[in-house]
Amino acid sequence: MSPISRSSSQPDVGVLLAAAGSGERVGGEPKQFREIAGVPMLLRALRPFAQHPRVRQLVIALPVAFVDAPPEWLETVVSGRLRLVAGGATRAESVLAALRALDEGCSTVLIHDAARPFVSYETIETVIETASATGAVPCVPVSDTLKRVEEGSGRVVETVARDGLWRAQTPQGFPRDMLEAAYKRFGEDGISQLTDEAALCEAAGYTVRVVPDSGRNIKITTPSDFLIAEVLAQR
Asked: What digits encode the pLDDT tens for the residues 100-132?
């Protein structure tokens, strides 16, 4: 069955892609523009959303210098459904800027890291369905042994039980009114220390539910991550 035939609902989902990072940990160039197996990482990240029938609009938060002069490959896909905005100094500020630019017809909002180029259609579908009623965050169970370490000395303080611990990924989804209310409650100054939108909505008192995800949906952060990404792309 093709992806398009799996949903007959009208497009009502807005997708915000956080892609305003400077790429300092991967050599100083915007890592979201680097190619993985010949395809720019940002393009890989946005394609699955662009192909989903429920998606009404995509808004990408970019470094300021690239908003009016995006890479040629991105400029060719800029259309009525895709909008570019200037990101902020933090991830939270970039997401808020993208949210403010979102079409009013988008009642459900998904936020995705441009550094996660391997999100599956199935994960997107499940997050959309869950986020129509409550917050949704795709996660994988923590499998490593966790150590709490004393800052500065490197001394292990304790081994942390991993029961019930999950590693959060993206896209995270929310009813739009929930997300906007959470941002309004904390304001621009209050969101800078929050690492994701799930934490924002949790802090505002809203329910957020876990959507099981795949370990393949990795985040590209370091040069070695690009080596892993090349292998995943070939597969």
From this structure: 999 999 999 999 999 999 999 999 999 999 999
Return the domain boundaries, the chain: 3-234
Q: Is the torsion defined by CA of 209, 1, 58, 18 positive or negative?
A: positive
- pLDDT tens per residue across span 119-168: 999 999 999 999 999 999 999 999 999 999 999 999 999 999 999 999 99
In this structure, are residues 51 and 8 in contact, taking their beta carbons and an 8 Å threshold?
Answer: no
> What is the spatial distance between Cα 216 and Cα 123, in angstroms, rounded to a whole number?
11
Q: Domain 3-234: give its CATH code.
A: 3.90.550.10
Q: What is the pTM of this model?
A: 0.90
Cα distance between residue 169 and residue 119, in whole Å: 10
Could you tell me how many helices (H) and strands (E) the chain has, helices first? 8, 12
